[in-house]
TrEMBL record:
It comes from the Bacteria. Keywords: Acyltransferase, Transferase. The keyword Transferase applies. Pfam families: Acetyltransf_1. This is Acetyltransferase (GNAT) family protein. SUPFAM superfamilies: Acyl-CoA N-acyltransferases (Nat). Residues 2-159 form the N-acetyltransferase domain. It comes from Biostraticola tofi. GO terms for molecular function: acyltransferase activity, transferring groups other than amino-acyl groups.
């Protein structure tokens, strides 16, 4: 149904823009940042983590495309590899391709490629309010290993 292919240098700027837009929205919704601050933090995150773009060591950037095709790109996977473990830093299926089995197929292909690389565990984070993503991950065999929690100190008065 899908294949994952290495992201090309010319595709990275479009992915970077999409990541910044989506991560900024997530930060604003889940962490309470204002739009400008959320966008700055999202930009710092991707630029700091992927300083060499698609060639950044220990990172794999894949485009999700329909099987047998090179285009259209229907989503992206950003994987960070350390030893025999991988972390899904970002998984994005474009909205018009969601709910049709492509997400599940992409995660299955990811598993196959990571296993072929000698990876024996993969983890990820899902936002608390993203029920559809959580359901997809659970259907694909992911299970909860902990909870991220935070609280704001912005209103704390320090003497």
């Amino acid at each position: 149904m899908v294949k994952l292919r290495d992201m090309r240098d010319v595709e990275f700027p479009a992915y970077r823009r999409l990541f910044i837009d989506e991560y900024a929205q997530d930060l604003a919704a889940t962490r309470g940042y204002g739009a400008e601050d959320a966008r700055a933090r999202a930009t710092e995150s991707i630029d700091g983590s992927l300083s060499a773009g698609v060639r950044t060591a220990a990172n794999r950037l894949w485009c999700i495309v329909p099987a047998g095709e090179e285009q259209p790109v229907i989503g992206y996977l950003w994987i960070v590899v350390k030893d025999q473990a991988a972390w899904v830093a970002d998984f994005c299926l474009l909205p018009e391709w969601r709910g049709r089995g492509f997400g599940r197929a992409a995660l299955g292909e990811m598993d196959r490629l990571l296993a072929a690389m000698g990876i024996n565990e993969v983890g990820l984070r899902v936002a608390a309010g993203n029920g559809s993503a959580k359901a997809l991950y659970e259907k694909c065999g992911f299970h909860i290993t902990g909870f991220n929690m935070s609280r704001s100190l912005a209103t704390l008065k320090v003497d």
